[in-house]
Design a protein that fits this description.
Layout: H1 4-55, H2 69-75, E1 79-83, E2 89-92, H3 104-111, E3 116-122, E4 125-135, E5 142-150, H4 152-199, H5 217-267, H6 272-303, E6 312-315, H7 316-330, E7 335-338, E8 345-348, H8 350-366, E9 373-380, E10 384-391, H9 398-401, H10 423-433, E11 437-442, E12 448-455
Helix pairs in contact: 1-4, 5-6, 6-10, 7-8, 8-10
């Protein structure tokens, strides 16, 4: 694990440090270029002034030899000499310039009438020099004026500027680090407050919700998502508690009945026929327990995605016809009908879809009076096929239609003849595993109509 606050602080500081360093480097290079340009302008102005003196017949503007080298560079920093046609110095503005080095190539070009710039070494340092031709009166006719300046003062100014900028960058980075730490703490504090409230949510106290920073635009979505998740967890927990209680009740009923029948049978000796009747009754209760157990296991495997449909191309109509034939044996007093229609070929798990058909028909058998008509209708379009099971029984109130597929939900007494209330839940889970939907509504005659819609090629799941 890592600290988000430390990461935010370090990244923000590093980003600003890089930005300040880049700005400082850009400013330093710009300042250095301006210094060099200013030096060249000073040299050009000095060369023009000295050339004017020589053309007018005046000597070079002298500087007394009272300066040391460092003093002259700091105060004047302009070495001027006049050279004749062979490069010999014939005049200088200071004695320090007496041994000013000569760039032969630059001197030759200047003697030909061009202004020439050079950078050359002198006394272990670098100097910037300008060679300018000058026409003068007298036998010499033409001289070359060499004006030079040392880079020493410019280098010192450049180094001072560099240190100043580096210091500014470091101080700015330090200040930014402190500000970034404060900003990171301020950014994470709402998350810590939300976390503290979330940790305080307990299943024993339903209705608790996150309220910290719910009015902050950037956090309102997160708080809303967490609150919806808590609501779903509460709903799931309530459903689980209700399911456990209902399962316990449904398990206790047959177990109590079995225990009572066994106790009665054991009180006094019975005839073989009586024992056989007791065993047959017990077998019915065992079958009920087995069906309940199988339904619970199937639901658990479907919920955990441990059981997936084994898709294969199936004649859905033939599958439904076989299910209707089986229903005729379980509910001989009911009237079953399959509406005419074309054959439907779809990618489904035939065993699971057959189980859905059986559950829907069993639901009609168990919860409608004898003689009730049950109609099965198949239909389809380019994308999906559908099946609807309609009965003409007493129907269900509207408040039960919305929760009909929840586990252990049963209809009212007019439709109830026992059962664990899991058949429709299993059907809904299977249809959902096929990428389809299931719904319940009132049928036209006033009974119940349960419809499923399944795509021809359900989406594959990883």
């Amino acid at each position: 694990m890592y600290s988000l606050r430390r990461t935010l602080s370090v990244r923000f500081s590093a980003t600003l440090f890089a930005a300040l360093l880049l700005i400082a480097a850009w400013a330093f290079l710009g300042a250095r270029r301006l210094m060099l340009e200013q030096l060249d302008r000073d040299l050009a102005a000095g060369a023009q002034l000295e050339s004017s003196y020589l053309r007018a017949g005046f000597p070079l503007h002298p500087h007394p030899d009272l300066f040391t080298w460092d003093e002259f560079v700091d105060e004047v920093n302009r070495f001027v000499v006049a050279r004749d046609s062979v490069g010999t110095i014939v005049a200088a503005n200071t004695g320090l310039a007496a041994d000013l080095p000569l760039d032969t190539a630059a001197f030759t070009q200047a003697a030909s009438g061009a202004d020439v710039w050079t950078t050359q070494p002198w006394l272990g340092e670098r100097i910037r020099a300008l060679y300018v031709p000058v026409a003068v009166r007298g036998p010499q006719g033409r001289l070359v004026v060499q004006v030079a300046a040392s880079y020493e003062r410019l280098d010192r100014s450049r180094n001072d500027l560099l240190l100043l900028m580096l210091g500014t960058v470091l101080l700015g980075t330090l200040a930014t680090s402190l500000g970034a730490r404060w900003l990171a703490d301020s950014s994470v504090e709402p998350v810590l407050a939300i976390t503290a409230q979330a940790e305080a949510v307990e299943p024993e106290h339903p209705g608790q919700r996150i309220s910290a920073h719910a009015d902050v635009t950037e956090l309102a979505g997160l708080v809303a998502v967490i609150n919806r998740m808590i609501a779903r967890l509460e709903s799931a927990l309530d459903s689980q508690r209700r399911m456990i209680a209902d399962a316990g009740h449904d398990l206790r009923t047959p177990i109590t009945a079995m225990q009572g029948e066994i106790e009665v049978a054991l009180r006094h000796p019975r005839s073989p026929e009586t024992y056989q009747a007791v065993l047959e009754s017990l077998l019915e209760e065992v079958a009920h327990l087995a069906a309940l157990s199988d339904s619970l296991i199937l639901l658990a495997r479907l919920d955990a995605k441990d059981l997936r449909p084994a898709m294969e191309e199936t004649d859905v109509r033939a599958l439904v016809e076989r299910s209707v034939q089986r229903a005729l044996g379980r509910g001989p007093s009911h009237r079953f009908a399959l509406t005419p229609g074309p054959a439907i070929l779809a990618q489904v798990d035939p065993h699971m879809i057959g189980l859905v058909c059986d559950h829907l028909l069993d639901n009609a058998i168990k919860h409608t009076p004898d003689g009730t008509a049950v109609t099965v209708a198949l239909d389809g379009d380019a994308r999906r096929w559908s099946m609807t099971v309609m009965d003409t029984g007493p129907g269900l109130p509207d408040e039960l239609l919305s929760v009909l597929f929840e586990r252990f939900v049963r209809g009212d007494s007019a439709r109830t003849r026992g059962g664990a209330g899991l058949g429709l839940s299993v059907s809904a889970a299977i249809v959902n595993a096929h990428g389809g939907t299931i719904s319940a509504q009132r049928s036209a005659p006033g009974g119940l109509a349960i419809s499923i819609a399944v795509p021809f090629r359900p989406p594959t799941t990883a």
